[in-house]
Amino acid sequence: MRLKKILENVEIVKIINNKNINIKSITHISSDVIKDSMFICLKGENFDGNNYALEVVKNGAKCIVTENENIDTLNAVIVVVKDVRKAMSLIAKNYYYKCVDDMEVCCIVGTSGKTTTSHMLMQLLSKIDNNVGVIGTNGIYIGNIFQDNKFTTPDPLELHYIFYQMKMLGVKRVIMEVSAQAIYYQKITGIKFKYGVFTNISAEHLDFFKSMEDYVRCKMSFFKSENMKECVINIDDFYGMELAYKSNIPCVSVGIKNPANSFAVDIKSSLNGSIFTANILDEIYSVDCSFVGEFNIYNLLTAMTVAKMWGVSQEQITNVIKNMKAIPGRFNVYHKGDNLIAIDFAHTSDSIDKILHFVRCNTDAKIITLFGCVGYSDLEKRIAIAKSVDRSSDYLVITTDNRGDVSFDEIACDIEKGIFKCDYVKIEDRESAIKYAIDNLKNDDVLLILGKGAENFQKINGERIKYSDIEVVERYLKEKL
Are the C-beta atoms of residues 38 and 23 closer than 8 Å to each other? Predict the structure, then answer.
């Protein structure tokens, strides 16, 4: 593709050695540069793409995109831009023929509930379109095709290639999770969403944003008319109520505790599922589903609302909910005799509080909770998570959860600072920890395995090691039969 077309709508400061050259590939990774490629100089805490300019030109790059006006004049076209990350998103969109503009896209923003809501919505939309695209934590779905996904929201060059693939396969509707980091790094700049969904905000990623205020401001700043046409907001969330009040775009509210456009009443929830009456934009639904807990009722209300707005009929929504499949890694239930074992992605103090509170309110059994803390979390977060687990559990199994380059002993030591009442054991290997917990279940004990959900890897010492809680539990329970 010619450079002029690739740079459409990009805010350019100046171009050195300006030629409308043909670009054959685009990358921000120096080792991926090939002949006639464009190299985008990103800067991070521990790297600066500008330092690789000479190297990539020697390796065949014909164009450099940078914020650095003082970069050495090279035997290449130098495009100086005002904001290189914003430029990369627009460049990626242009390079992949602006395919995203030909699709209707719904983004889901929030600390918790993004994946569950997106998969619920995917199943509801299947009634009017069996070729729906989904991009999120659990992977990328293009109709019946599945791909792994390294990030909740992929980087722009990968993201727009995914949109390109989707369009080639006939996808017209896309649901995607949008993380706070994606907003901060402008990964989704240039995409006009049909619907924007806000689930909730609680403390997370403060290692990145440094303060709760910065984290909240980042998420809420995205809900503007330039980014989306309409929004659906959980107004029972403190920040959601503020967002609905301040938003300059048409807003549909969802709630249980506050008056809303879509709401639920007569809620009855147990470890086996939930029954309630829903009013979705003035249509009444009797809901009997397998999803548990108030948190999932919010997710389902939101998915039903967006589906209704997208044109799914009341009858179609009702029929799908009756047979709605479980979301991988979101309170997936197994049984060992009288014991219930549940795997869930809950990994923040808020989400852990909610799930443990729900389980505690629905059983008199002893609750054993298996969990860990990620390596990049700080001491404060580890203590908060430990306090949440300690508050409603009877026994704890502390284990590894994406510890990265941090030792298990260091993380476990921090966790211990938040434990005051529960007895516990520390087992570094997560598979061994799960087997230990299952082997030691008594009577009708409940085992909660928290933190990883459907993740199929462990991040340890710079490596992404294949691992799955779901596979471990299913395989070990078969062995125990």
Answer: yes
